[in-house]
Amino acid sequence: MLSHGALIERLAAALADRPGVRLADDQLRRSAVALLLVERDGATWVPLIERGADAPTHSGQIALPGGGFDAADVDLVATARREAEEELGVPRAAPRVLGTLDDVPTPTGYAITPVVAELDGGQPIAPNPREVASWFWVPLARFFERTDVELMGTRTWRGRAWTMRAYPYAGHRIWGATARILEAVVELAGGPPRED
User: Fold this and answer.
1) In sequence order, what DSSP letters do the residues of the chain get, joined into one string?
2) In this structure, is the dihedral angle defined by the CA atoms of residues 144, 145, 148 and 154, taken in order, positive or negative?
3) Interval 39-76: pLDDT, tens
């Protein structure tokens, strides 16, 4: 596993060379999530949230902070920054954006643009209880290791088969689009490739 500094350097270089593939589909709602990479004790960690039971979509699910594109957002990076602020209290200017990954479609009709950013480890996190039931840290190293992973079968979307995996961690079950996005950033950092 790379040191945090080496990981950030590798991701910044890889993301500079590729802008990410955007899904052009009027039937999918544009959205973005903030994949915040934070150094803690020399390792890279990511804050994840559990959506509240009253959330309009994906209630009770483990997710990266994020949501739908708003007309006031300049772009999808602005969407990710706004959502990180609204959900985790991270000031919009705080994350240093490294780039974006390929869009991830969801069966619920969203096209998620993952925005990869580094966040200073000293930045306090203050979740909004109206949007976030709870939150926790997960080490990015968890997604470099494909042991103890639950295979959930495959889903087909527009002729493409997607292998679904769930990662247990500290009593949580990380799966779906969140797991796919974390796998994608790990692959870009030189970790094991996703097996769709």
Assistant:
1) ---HHHHHHHHHHHHHT---PPP--TTSEEEEEEEEEEEETTEEEEEEEEE-TT-SSSTT-EE-SEEE--TT-SSHHHHHHHHHHHHH---TTSSEEEEEPPPEE-TTSEEEEEEEEEE-TTS-----TTTEEEEEEEEGGGGT--SS-EEEEEEEETTEEEEEEEEEETTEEE-HHHHHHHHHHHHHTTSPPP--
2) positive
3) 999 999 999 999 866 555 545 689 999 999 999 999 99
pLDDT one-digit tens code per residue, 3-22: 999 999 999 999 998 888 99
What is the C-alpha to C-alpha distance for residues 117 and 60, in angstroms, rounded to an integer? 25
First CA to last CA across the chain, in angstroms?
Answer: 23
Q: Backbone phi, then psi, for 63, in 5-degree steps? A: -150, 165
CA dihedral 73, 76, 80, 86 (to 10 degrees): 20
Nearest to 40 by CA among 138, 117, 185: 138
Domain 4-188 CATH assignment equals 3.90.79.10: yes
Q: What are 51's two structure tokens?
A: 């959506």
Residues 161, 172: Cα–Cα separation, whole Å: 26
